[in-house]
Amino acid sequence: MARFTYKARGPYGQVEGVQEAANAAQVADILRQKDLIPVSIKPEASNTAALAGTLGVHGSTANGVSAPVKWPPPRVTKEDVMLFSRQIHTLLKAGVPILRALAGLQETTTNLAMKKVIYEVRRSLEGGVDLGNSVAMHPKVFDTFYVAMIRVGETSGQLDHIFFRLYKHMDFEQFMRKQVKSALRYPSFVITAMIAAIGIINVMVIPAFENVFRSLGSELPLPTRILMGMSHFTIEYGWYLLAAIVVAFFVFRQWKESPEGSLVWDSLLTRMPLVGPIVVQASLSRFARAFSLSLRSGVPLERALSSVAQTADNGFLAKRIEGMRESITRGDSLTRSAVAAGVFTPMVLQMLAIGEETGMLDELLEEIGELYGNEVEYSIKTLSQQIEPILIIFLGAVVLLLALGVFLPMWDMGRVSLKH
């Protein structure tokens, strides 16, 4: 048994004290039985080292004996968050209180990094912070979409259903990532091989032929001059070019993480060929499903739109959805606001109009989410087929340039030798 100091609110004001219990969740249960509302529950100083050891903090164990620090240190993976979502859904559905559910998961989780995150979320809840803000304190573990969905669950009172939705969403995202990797594997291999081949030709082959080409005495063909210029540039400035690419990559990443850059990048992402439609469909699928769940739970339309805007996981689309909320506040219908947003297809707009007329908006939004989800799955499955024609044209142009650049001077040399 450990000792915990607590602060709680009661009928006669705030109460402070010390309570022995197995964990903080049990202390909270004892306080509720006494008609006290827990404000904060903290382990006594003598227990801190033991708790830190249990969580793997500072590489110590519960009895104070040093434990070897693992390297590389454990980190929370997507699979850990998926398992956490599925397990807490099961516990909440069975009627287990959130604090007790988190305490149980903390004990059973084998990943020390995830154990520490669950512990900190539970401590934050015990301190009176809501679940949405508690998970938002760990942005490297729970992304903005996850936090937004948790807040929708708190607003609608359907946290157990939200956690199941999150599990299914992450499972679908993992499946999609595997599909994208599979679709891009062949094009990536071909492009990498072609870049390597062009580099070898520029650095080794063209310089070897250059003196022979210049000995012809006549003006070289344009493809040959292009190849020789590329070769000179690669040999003289190749390292500078590589350094510039590396610097540009880090500058771009820094810009993309800034608020202004993130909004511009998200807007560009939605208009990119091949990728743009997939991004829009996936974002709107998340939005429609979260919006449906909020409306089904009785959340008012304007408040629901405000809560689920961030579930789109795209700043540009989230801003458009926020614009829909402002339009509805001014008195427009949902369908008219969706038309003004300019991100929904005509068929989806028609479904929204029917949903408003029949009072079945939540059900039709669920259908819209499924529709967009199916379109995303189909688009990713056919992504490789869409890339192949572009890849063939690019490779054909490169091979044609190399062939003309190398063989045209040789044909000229052949004609000269025949004349002599």
Word description of this protein:
74% of the residues lie in helices and 6% in strands. A three-stranded antiparallel β-sheet has the order 2-1-3. It has helices spanning 24-33, 45-55, 78-93, 98-108, 112-126, 131-136, 144-156, 159-214, 222-257, 259-271, 275-296, 301-308, 315-329, 334-341, 346-358, 361-381, 383-419, and strands at 2-10, 13-21, 37-43. α7 (144-156) runs parallel beside α11 (275-296), α10 (259-271) crosses α11 (275-296) and α13 (315-329) packs antiparallel against α14. Mean pLDDT is 80; it is low at 47-54 and 56-69. It has 420 residues and is mainly α.
- The helix/strand class is mainly alpha
Q: Residue share in helices? A: over 70%
Quick check: average pLDDT? 80
**What can be said about the biggest beta sheet?**
3 strands, antiparallel
Shape: elongated
| Alpha plus pi helix count | 17
**Element-by-element helix/strand order:** EEHEHHHHHHHHHHHHHHHH
- Spatial order of strands in the largest sheet: 2-1-3
How much strand content do the residues show? Answer: 5-15%
Number of strands: 3
Radius of gyration, in angstroms, nearest whole number: 30 Å
Report the end-to-end length measured between terminal Cα atoms: 104 Å
Give a brief outline of the structure.
The protein has helices at 24-33, 45-55, 78-93, 98-108, 112-126, 131-136, 144-156, 159-214, 222-257, 259-271, 275-296, 301-308, 315-329, 334-341, 346-358, 361-381, 383-419, and strands spanning 2-10, 13-21, 37-43.
Q: How are the SSEs ordered, and which strands pair?
A:
Layout: E1 2-10, E2 13-21, H1 24-33, E3 37-43, H2 45-55, H3 78-93, H4 98-108, H5 112-126, H6 131-136, H7 144-156, H8 159-214, H9 222-257, H10 259-271, H11 275-296, H12 301-308, H13 315-329, H14 334-341, H15 346-358, H16 361-381, H17 383-419
Antiparallel strand pairs: 1-2, 1-3
Helix pairs in contact: 3-4, 3-8, 4-5, 7-8, 7-11, 8-9, 8-17, 9-17, 10-11, 11-12, 11-16, 12-13, 13-14, 14-15, 15-16
